[in-house]
Amino acid sequence: MSQLPAEARGVAAGVLIYSLICLIANFLMFWLVWTHNERLSYVALISYFAFLATTCSIIQQVHDNIQWRDVITLQFENTSANPASPVLALGNGSTGADLILFYIQYYCYIVEATLVLFWAFSLTQSVYGWSEKHSLRRSFAFANLTGKIVSVILPAIAIGLLQSKVVQGSFIAFMLVADLQFAISVAGGGFMLLMILIKYIQTRRQFKAWSVDYGKNSRVSKSSPAPRISGAPHLKRSLGIYDRWLVVRFTSAFVVLFIFEFTNVWFQITAHQNNIRDARASSPDFSASRARKSYLLDIPGVSASLLSFLMFGTTKPFRDKMYTTFIPKRFQRRSETATLTNPSYGANANSTIATSRRSQMSGQLFPGFDFGFNTDELRNSGAAVKASDSEFPVLPSMLSSRGEKCQTWV
């Protein structure tokens, strides 16, 4: 039976339902990246850790709902004994199982932020053509692979340092270790995003065609245009799980990361204020307002699951997959169904192009064999693209600083 005040149960139920919706969106994202064989792409990795964070948040919400008074009493006792503890300030007074769940969530948040940073680095390589230079191609491919590994390991080291008594002995040192990687990710990602936008503005003013070949599906040859199949419809080249709005989608994701970092700081300030108030109080605060505020602070953390789907699960390849899977065939337009299920369609898992190129790709380390990481394609193909601004507004057909002559991809 719930120990929550009756006035706060509506908010708690609403936040829990919202969290479950986010979890469902994350499951859908899982299915999309797995069916498109992009299981270790940046989008996939972010969704994995968002899923873990959302799951832990739901468990914590249910636990707090059932044992609210017990949880608040234990927090009050610990806060009264250690009012200046940075651990209690970071975790909003959480102890025991709640503190473990909090650390798992916080680890996931740092991983997601670091992945966004390295993703920004990958996009910058594509936009400026660094990774297309033969002398740098191997180095950048290795750097992109290393970035994904570092994004997982470095936050674990930070969480480990937060358990050190030496670090916990200094409030400033503790908060610095906890927030430094967040700050670096936001600052570094913002700088590289600014570089991308500056490049875009410059090429817009020069009226040149720019084709950035980011994220092309690894099952299509990276060294030459896909062969045209006799009788196949005229198709634009596949970009794997991405579409021409990638920069807009990524910019939106970065803005969300910035807002989340602001929310994270607000969370820590609120927790510190609660600890000071609890230390001065003579009894625990079981008020409904305290309960409502506590549950509302869970919303930003679980929102990453929903937002990752809304921003990156709605690309054209993913929309096409959901359309052909979830819309009954009798309601599908025949022309669209024929195109989306055609063997030559780039996003189709049974693509005949993939079959013809698989043996050639498997023997190469860089850039042919991508281990499913989807990072080595970060290069300009050097081929020309014919497109108007209205058809290819941002990426991959922004505007080319190299001014290649345009022609249609087949």
Automatic annotation (TrEMBL):
Keyword annotations from UniProtKB, A to Z: Membrane, Transmembrane, Transmembrane helix
This protein's record includes keyword Transmembrane helix: yes
Keyword Nucleotide-binding: no
Bilayer-crossing regions: 12-33, 40-60, 100-121, 142-162, 182-201, 246-267, 295-313
UniProt name for this protein: Glycoside hydrolase
